[in-house]
Amino acid sequence: MTPTLASSTPPMIEARGLGFARRDEGVFGPLDFALSGGGIGLIEGDNGSGKTTLLRVLAGLLRPSFGTARVLGAEPGSETAREGTATMGHLLGLKADLSALENLRIGMGLYGHKPTPGPFAMLTQVGLEGYADEPVRSLSAGQKKRVALARLALLPARLWLLDEPYANLDRHGINLVNDLLTAHAAAGGAALVTSHGAVSFHQGVTCTVRLAA
Amino acid sequence: MRSVETLRMDKFLAMGGFAQYVWPAYAAFFVILAGDVLATVVRRRRVLRELRGRLARQGTRRPRVSA
Amino acid sequence: MNAFKLWYHKLGSPPYFYVFAGYIQPWLWTIALLLAAVGLYGGLVLAPPDALQGDAFRIIFVHVPAAWMSLFVYGVMAVSAFVAVIWRPKMAEVLAMESAPIGAAFTLIALITGSLWGKPMWGTYWTWDARLTSELVLFFIYLGIIGLYHAFDDPRQGARAASFLAMIGAVNLPIVHYSVVWWNTLHQGTTVHYFGPSSIAPSMLWPLLLMTIAAKFYYGASLMGRSRVALLSLERGKDWVADEVRGDTAHG
Amino acid sequence: MSAASLGGAFRTMLVRDLLLAWRRRGDAMLPVLYAIIVATLFPFALGPEHALLARIAGGVVLVTVLLAMLLALDNVFRGDLDDGALEQMLLAPQPLSLLLAARMLAYWLVTALPLLLVAPVLAYMLGLEPAAQPVLLLALLLATPLLALLGIVLTALTAGTRRSGMLLSLMLLPLAVPIVIFAAGAVGAAQQGLPWVAPLAWLAAALALALVLAPLACATALRIALDT
Q1: Is the pLDDT confidence value at D40 over 50?
Q2: pLDDT in tens, D54-105
Q3: What is the ipTM of this complex?
Q4: Residue D214 placed within a domain
């Protein structure tokens, strides 16, 4: 029924007739798509076409109005799904009063995870060397985004749900996102990314979901 | 000359000297419930007006249907 | 069980409920008004004055039905709220949220009539008597539920949040009553015997019962009317609402 | 989900909230300042007559502490909602109720604990008998966590609304009535030399129940208010 990639493992995201309506007015859908490990999905659409809403449904923050979605083989928002999923939204979820390093530690603590290249090394990797103890308040919008990207890379999540990861980033930042995505996919992970017409988007997109306004 | 009827009515309205408590209590009962009904009537009119406006705006154009 | 399920699903569908409510509403109104007319005649004219309270006891015919209804409506609202939070049917949300203002109205009536009765009996309009105090807290609970419902932009989300609050209130209400009674016995200065007639004569019992039943039918009628409006507003995108609005325009 | 990672998440949240409060320690002192101001106004309003002040001291301190806690309640989820941290909490693999329990503990430590420290001073200034002082402290020790637990559940319900300060007070009042009655009842009984254990035992029982149920209710409330 759905065009799945030939793969022995079940898809990380599987949507069947998935749609969402707010106050009985359709926001998106019905959608059919699947995303497997190693794949990067792109959600395209204009403003107001429901890209963020789709991500929120898949994250389990909103209940689908019709159709079904499976995330990591489980119900969106279930413990299995949440354990293997990391998200980055418009709001980055960083505490402005805490330092970059403290913010990363909180993110890791919430997932109960201690990765080997630690948060310090990860900050260097996203180009924030020397900013570890800087309060997030004093960072620029792009630097904040990099902190959020560092947190994303530190979490033990196989599936990434990224809402406009390229926004606020310069050319280096965009390359950074693409590098992180490549590494994530190479390690067998999957990512679903929204964009309203990405210019320098990642080369290895395996599936595209178009949302009509 | 006051008729027997009027006298009985006066006696009834006096409520044995408790008129100033009994009648306001009954008034409160009916005024508040009437307010409840009136609020519904006013709201129904407003909602219908809104819906008529909505209908006229849409005309032949159908609302976005997704399913 | 099967008949119940059928009934639940049929009435759970907004257009069906709309028609059903519109059909029974006039009947509820008629019964409520008839019972109230007879009850009022019995209470105000036929029943003899009370031996101790004179004619002041006649407030009972509005106070007691209102006080009972303030709890009865809360009970209905709490059950609908429970269903609304657990299974999320639209109708349960509507019934719970449209019950709240009616319950608040009855609570307000109970408070006003109670204090009007208190003046000739206790010599003061307000005393921190256990029942009046509980009724006041109940009024605040109703106001909180209504306020929370309207604080949300999305009425369905507001209905669910307020329903949850109604459930918390249902647990809290007996605790409030118990604590207020305890508090009253602790501070013996304000303990007053709750008013009531010196003896319950049949001549005052039947008007009281009629008024109580009339109040229940009034609640039913008002709830149907309110729910119909709420459904029109909630289901504005649906075809049946458009048909209804066109029909309404055609009729007048 | 291992017990270790549950404990780790709880600790992470607690440390986070305490650290945030520390970075803004000026804000954390506001409820204390508010309580001192309110309690100070009473003698001016009622006159410095010792007997009258001594009689109402317990009740004044209790109500003052309650109002001061209410002042800080509105901000419990505001910051996390505005910067998206609340969403990260909802999406974390740990049970939401566990993270909220940490949030509640942090709120009590940051808001109620300083109030508990000034409460005896305020009660003394208002002339509360020394014999009733320990009872007042014990009553506050039971009443403040109960208020914190219940208050945060209600705050969670208003999380999706724009402005909620006044509404929150209205919603909290019916829940606060029994708490105030039992806490003040115990203090009043102690002032009159009567047994005061029973009302405090009721408060303790309610607290035990709330400790288990409030985080779960709060998680449900938050999911409803944020429509998830």
Answers
A1: yes
A2: 999 999 999 999 999 998 898 899 999 999 999 999 999 999 999 999 999 9
A3: 0.90
A4: yes
Band of residue C195 on the pLDDT scale cut at 50, 70, 90:
low
Contacts of D189 in chain C (CB under 8 A): 186
3-class state of residue A191 by DSSP: strand
In a domain, B67, yes or no: no
Q: Is the CB of C182 less than 8 angstroms away from the CB of D162?
A: no
Tell me what pLDDT residue B67 has: 38
Put simply, whether C147 touches D (Cβ < 8 Å) is yes
The answer to whether residue A76 neighbours chain B at the CB level (below 8 Å) is no
Domains of chain C, residue spans: 70-185+201-233
Q: Which residue of C has its CA nearest to B29?
A: C109
pLDDT digits (tens, 9 = 90+) for D159-209: 988 777 789 999 999 999 999 999 999 999 999 888 999 999 999 999 999
Residue A60 pLDDT greater than 60, yes or no: yes
What are the tens digits of pLDDT across the range B19-38?
A: 899 999 999 999 999 999 99
Asked if residue B65 belongs to a domain, the reply is no
Instruction: Tally the C-alpha atoms within 13 A of residue D64's C-alpha that lie toward its C-beta.
Output: 27
> Is there a domain that residue D1 lies in?
no
**Among candidates B18, B48, B50 on the partner chain, residue whose Cβ is nearest the Cβ of C248:** B48
Residues in chain A closer than 8 A to B63 (CB atoms): 25
Best mutation target among B40, B48, B57 (most C Cβ atoms within 10 Å) is B40
Q: What gap in Å lies between CA C198 and CA D18, rounded to an integer?
A: 62
pLDDT in tens, D207-228: 999 999 999 999 999 999 887 5
For residue C130, pLDDT beyond 70? yes
Task: Tell me how far apart the alpha carbons of residues C217 and C229 are, in angstroms, rounded to a whole number.
Answer: 19
Which pairs with CB-CB distance under 8 Å and at least 24 residues apart come from C199-207? C199/C51, C201/C47, C201/C48, C203/C42, C203/C46, C203/C47, C203/C48, C204/C43, C204/C47, C204/C50, C204/C57, C204/C60, C206/C42, C207/C38, C207/C39, C207/C40, C207/C41, C207/C42, C207/C43, C207/C46, C207/C47, C207/C61
Per-residue confidence band for C197, with pLDDT thresholds at 50, 70 and 90 = low
Please give, rounded to a whole number of angstroms, the shortest distance from the CA of D8 to a CA of chain A: 6
Min CA distance, B61 vs chain A (Å)? 14
Q: Is there a contact between D177 and C154 if contact means CB atoms under 8 Å apart?
A: no
The domain total for chain B is 1
Domain count, chain D: 1
- In angstroms, the separation between the Cα of residue D221 and the nearest Cα of chain C is 7
- C143 at D interface, C-beta within 8 A: yes
Q: Look up the domain containing D67 and give its range.
A: 6-225
Structural domain harbouring B43: 4-60
- Contact between A175 and A183 under an 8 Å Cβ cutoff? The reply is no
CA angle, residues D175, D169, C159, in degrees to nearest 5: 80
Q: Do chains D and B touch (3 or more CB pairs under 8 A)?
A: no
Residues 76-115 in C contacting D (C-alpha not used; CB under 8 Å): 85
